[in-house]
């Protein structure tokens, strides 16, 4: 069947986004509003807007205050606003936090997912559900890159929470016919990520302040890194493609298929910022993490016609520019 263009498809769609104030959620909500969708966002911890664009966008969507662990809140938000599309981004996303406190991560990421899917099952207006899993759901595999037909073998708390959420999404499709798809992305980066323990914003901040970047691992861990704006387009394209019933129930990897070690990525950032004289400080403190993880996106290319729009260097250049502007805007408050 012929599909509408991506932008026109989202015109007047009624979209429920969990994690709407998060790093990815803020970019996705912004794009939906620019394309004239009606957005309802689940909001728990309210936090200041990270830039002027995000501040404007927050005035244009409806906030449902609550938590993923609160089933009745989710059911009310989806039912009362007559939602047709649900994009489930909400989660506890930090590996170190999960290692320190696995119970809160399991509550948010596992219970939160079954609560959301059960609420969707009860509301007849819901036509498509996209659930965010992760490359971490695959766990350790003997062969790489990860492909969607590999078993889910999470071992560590965050990884297990994503394996479980992924499987729960599949059971709601297989058992109840809920129109659901799952996304598995690598490590995404971009402006508005203020978790400076992550390698991209942490390295950029260190360089801006003339400090050596800190690397938690030994620097050799290999990952996929994908720009947050590419992830937004991937989610919205997948949801559009769910007009085709044959797409329902599938999981898709989204990656730019550029494999980088932590040291490789740090070097790229320093080169783009003209500061390769700042030698990274290697802490070698990482534990309960998989050493090498990277994805094949062939299935997304073949079934969805998806491809990333940004090279790694172009995406990093945009990201660096965002943080330069962000820290420039912080100066008056720092000086008092």
List the helices and strands and how they pair.
Blueprint: H1 6-9, E1 14-18, H2 23-34, E2 38-43, H3 52-58, E3 62-65, H4 71-80, E4 85-88, H5 95-100, H6 102-122, E5 128-132, H7 157-176, E6 180-185, E7 187-189, H8 199-208, E8 214-215, E9 222-227, H9 228-241, E10 251-254, E11 259-261, H10 262-272, E12 281-282, H11 298-304, H12 312-335
Parallel strand pairs: 1-2, 1-4, 2-3, 4-5, 5-6, 6-10, 7-9, 8-12
Antiparallel strand pairs: 9-11
Helix pairs in contact: 2-3, 2-9, 4-6, 6-7, 8-10, 8-12
Describe what you observe in this structure.
The chain is of the alpha/beta class and 336 residues long. It has a domain of 234 residues: Rossmann fold (3-Layer(aba) Sandwich). A seven-stranded parallel sheet has the order 3-2-1-4-5-6-10, with helices on both faces.
Q: Could you state the CATH homologous superfamily of the domain at 7-188 and 225-257 and 292-310?
A: NAD(P)-binding Rossmann-like Domain
Going by helix content, strand content and strand pairing, the class is alpha/beta
Strand content: 5-15%
Computed CA radius of gyration, to the nearest angstrom: 19 Å
Could you tell me how far the N terminus lies from the C terminus, measured between alpha carbons in angstroms?
59 Å
Helix segment count? 12
Task: Look up the CATH topology of the domain at 7-188 and 225-257 and 292-310.
Answer: Rossmann fold
* Average pLDDT, all residues: 94
Strand order of the largest sheet: 3-2-1-4-5-6-10
CATH class of the domain at 7-188 and 225-257 and 292-310: Alpha Beta
What is the overall shape? globular
CATH-derived architecture of the domain at 7-188 and 225-257 and 292-310: 3-Layer(aba) Sandwich
Secondary structure tally: strands = 12
The description of the largest β-sheet is: 7 strands, parallel
Low-confidence stretches: none
Element order: H for helix, E for strand: HEHEHEHEHHEHEEHEEHEEHEHH
Portion of residues in helices? 40-55%
